[in-house]
Amino acid sequence: MKKLLDYRLNIPTSDIFEYPKYFRMDGSISEAYYIDIYSRGIPKFSKCIGFTHPKKQRLLDYLNRRQSRGWKFPDQKSIRKAIIEALRENNHLTARELSIKTLITARNLRTSYLYPMENEGILLKVGKMKGKGGPVLWGLKKQ
């Protein structure tokens, strides 16, 4: 796979890494490997290969848009406005879903926007997604 990406398609990648082996519920051993695609290769990977899984494709599109944005960050007012508009359209979203819309990392979005907007009484945590330790769902506070 690395040879195909690196040498045939000219998509720069890392070395091949192995996830730690673990026992599955049925007693078999899981073996998995991965490679990282360097940021300069993301546009070509997206164009030549991409993903068929919708969630992975959305994240790949996000990486492309984020990379094309460069180091220029939008101003705080436009980000806050984008957060409010996204929550008006969808009722509640996770920080990751909002990060895809605002082109800011989920961590930065939480610390710089979501928590302060919660303290200001604009947003509130409306619950969690299903699953153990699921991500927090954010919504607009009723006024």
Give me some keywords for this one.
143 residues, alpha+beta, Arc Repressor Mutant, subunit A, 2 domains, two-stranded antiparallel sheet, 7 strands
Layout: helices, strands, pairs:
Elements: H1 2-8, E1 17-18, E2 22-23, E3 29-30, E4 33-34, H2 42-48, H3 54-69, H4 76-90, E5 92-93, H5 95-102, H6 106-119, E6 123-128, E7 136-140
Antiparallel strand pairs: 1-4, 2-3, 5-7, 6-7
Helix pairs in contact: 5-6
| Inertia-based shape | globular
Determine the structural class based on helices, strands and strand pairing: alpha+beta
> What are the segments in which pLDDT stays under 50 over at least 5 consecutive residues?
none
Q: How would you characterize the largest beta sheet? A: 3 strands, antiparallel
**How far apart lie the N and C ends?**
54 Å
The helix content, as a percent range, equals 40-55%
